[in-house]
Amino acid sequence: MKTLLIVGLIGTGLLTGCGSDEDGAESESESESESESESESEAESEAESEVEAECAADACGGDLVGDWTVVALCIGGGDPPDDCADGKDTRSFAIEGSATFSGDGTYEASFTTTTEHAITYPDACVGDLTCDELATDLSDDDTTATCGEAEAGCDCTTTRSDDDVQAGTWSTKGTTLTSQQDDEDAPQEWDYCVDGDTLTVARHVEGDDPVRFTLARK
């Protein structure tokens, strides 16, 4: 009779309380997993916000018709060097050129961008190569590279210059500039602001690094 009574109480749930020890352990494990997922999501969100803020610009609109000199370029984000997840890559950019926004809704732009990477490769990524051999591997027809010994690996600097010539059409609505490059299929939308003789043009599309150009009126 005692056995039947206990089985009956378990069946009604009166003796299960919050579950068995195994159920409690599973519940605790699930809670920890959910907490870890939430923490990872928060970290990713914070990192994304930092990247967005890196090249942020005011969007105030204004009259951008005229001739401009390109004076600065910001590209946020960035990834570790290729095939080296533990490496560190710090990028810097220099730009010079000009852009003209005509009153008939057309534009022309030409500029040269020089990109410099300061890269630290740990020993695990260098392998059997010497730092000089690594520099040779990083160099090509468009890129120059130098590498020196670091505490544990190689510190390298690569430099590359690229020329870009563009032409197309443009329009504005509020604080948004829409540009359609002649040789591109889709238009691009930018936040823009004309503040005195300074023009900032910025965009951030999910999945791409944020970009901001700064121009000075000629």
* Structural category: alpha+beta
Spans where pLDDT lies below 50 across 5 or more residues: 1-20, 43-48
Arithmetic mean of pLDDT: 83
Beta-strand fraction estimate = 35-45%
**Helix share bin:** 25-40%
- Continuous helix count: 4
Number of strands: 9
What is the chain-wise order of helices and strands? HHEEEHHEEEEEE
Distance between the termini: 99 Å
Largest sheet: 8 strands, antiparallel, barrel
Query: Compute the gyration radius: what is it?
Result: 28 Å
Outline the structure in words.
This protein has 218 residues and is an alpha+beta fold. It has four helices and nine strands, in the order ααβββααββββββ. Strands 1-2-3-5-6-7-8-9 form an eight-stranded antiparallel β-barrel. A hairpin with a 2-residue loop joins β7 (188-195) and β8 (198-203).
Describe the secondary-structure layout.
Blueprint: H1 2-12, H2 21-54, E1 66-75, E2 88-101, E3 106-122, H3 123-126, H4 131-138, E4 143-150, E5 153-173, E6 176-181, E7 188-195, E8 198-203, E9 211-217
Antiparallel strand pairs: 1-2, 1-9, 2-3, 3-5, 4-5, 5-6, 6-7, 7-8, 8-9
List keywords for this structure.
218 residues, single chain, 4 helices, disordered N terminus, 8-stranded antiparallel beta barrel, alpha+beta
Summarize it.
This protein has four helices and nine strands, in the order ααβββααββββββ. The chain has 218 residues and is α+β, with helices and mostly antiparallel strands.
